[in-house]
């Protein structure tokens, strides 16, 4: 048996299991399985590999993409560039971390917007945010970050609330937080959405539900919107390329 899976907290929202089960079926890989490993604390991570000796690789989701690096034997250049890993492969007894979020975001954004000109605003400062930062840097798109604290980004949500005109600078707004993710569908980043226009693009890394409250608010004011499903599928395909190499 060759076992793969997803670690994070929570994981019930994820489509990864469905994606890989369909992938294994299409390739007639009857000895491959994909499990969901809900893991609130990373101190459980080493025990997972001892419990499942047939575990070959895992995807990593929130909130562990940054801190999981300390448990790895090796780190690919993609994970070093981003400072976070969302794919781990066990080969020859060693755990190696990769970042396919970064590459998948680049492709997904280029598929959606050709030759974007303007500034981007990234909501959140975690591991997913770091992948987006790396992607925007490669595309030469200047960006600022919004976080709950001054330490986490260039702006806080409170600062934008007090000076809503700030948001008018940014034509691309990317949500990297789990706000709006199933089952907490109604939550959303606190922004002055009424300042958005038809020239704005809202990209949400959340894909379940397919239209988050964040995207609905953007659409209400004429913004173009996209969820994270394509990015998930692209990063999952890249994960499989790593695991099957």
Structural write-up:
The strands form 2 sheets. A 6-stranded mixed sheet has the order 2-1-3-5-6-4. A 6-stranded parallel sheet has the order 9-8-7-10-11-12, sandwiched between helices. The protein has 2 domains: about 1-100 and about 230-245, 3-Layer(aba) Sandwich (Rossmann fold); about 100-230, 3-Layer(aba) Sandwich (Rossmann fold), CATH 3.40.50.720. With about 240 residues, it is of the alpha/beta class. The longest helix has 15 residues, at about 230-245. The radius of gyration is 18 Å and the shape is elongated. About 40% of the residues are buried. The chain is about 30% helix and about 25% strand. The chain is built from 8 helices and 12 strands. α4 (about 100-110) crosses α5 (about 125-140) and α4 (about 100-110) crosses α8 (about 230-245).
Low-confidence region ranges: none
Characterize the main sheet: 6 strands, mixed
Strand content: 15-25%
Give the averaged pLDDT, no decimals.
Answer: 96
CATH topology of the largest domain: Rossmann fold
**Rg, please?**
18 Å
CATH architecture of the largest domain: 3-Layer(aba) Sandwich
The helicity comes to: 25-40%
Under CATH at level 1, the class of the largest domain stands as Alpha Beta
Number of strands: 12
Which of globular, elongated, flat, extended, rod-shaped describes the shape? elongated
Counted by DSSP, the helix tally is: 8
Looking at this protein, list some descriptive labels.
245 residues; alpha/beta; Rossmann fold; six-stranded mixed beta sheet; six-stranded parallel beta sheet; 8 helices; 31% helix; 23% strand
């Amino acid at each position: 048996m060759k076992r793969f899976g997803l670690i994070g907290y929570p994981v019930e929202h994820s489509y990864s299991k469905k994606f890989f089960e369909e992938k294994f079926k299409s390739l007639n890989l009857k000895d491959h399985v994909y499990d969901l490993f809900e893991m609130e604390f990373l101190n459980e991570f080493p025990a997972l590999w001892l419990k499942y000796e047939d575990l070959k690789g895992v995807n990593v989701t929130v909130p562990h993409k940054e801190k999981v690096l300390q448990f790895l034997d090796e780190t690919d250049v993609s994970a070093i560039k981003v400072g976070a890993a969302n794919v781990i492969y066990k080969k020859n007894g060693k755990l190696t971390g990769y970042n396919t979020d970064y590459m998948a975001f680049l492709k997904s954004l280029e598929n959606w917007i050709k030759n974007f000109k303007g500034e981007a605003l990234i909501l959140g400062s975690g591991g997913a945010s770091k992948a987006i930062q790396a992607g925007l840097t490669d595309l030469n798109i200047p960006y600022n970050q919004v976080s709950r604290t001054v330490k986490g980004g260039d702006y806080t949500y409170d600062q934008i609330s007090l000076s809503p005109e700030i948001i008018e600078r940014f034509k691309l707004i990317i949500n990297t937080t789990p706000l709006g993710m199933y089952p907490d569908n109604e939550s959303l980043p606190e922004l002055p959405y009424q300042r958005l226009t038809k020239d704005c693009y809202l990209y949400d890394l959340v894909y379940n539900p397919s239209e988050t409250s964040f995207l609905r608010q953007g659409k209400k004011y004429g913004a173009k919107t996209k969820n994270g499903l394509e990015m998930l599928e692209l990063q999952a395909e890249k994960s499989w390329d790593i695991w099957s190499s």
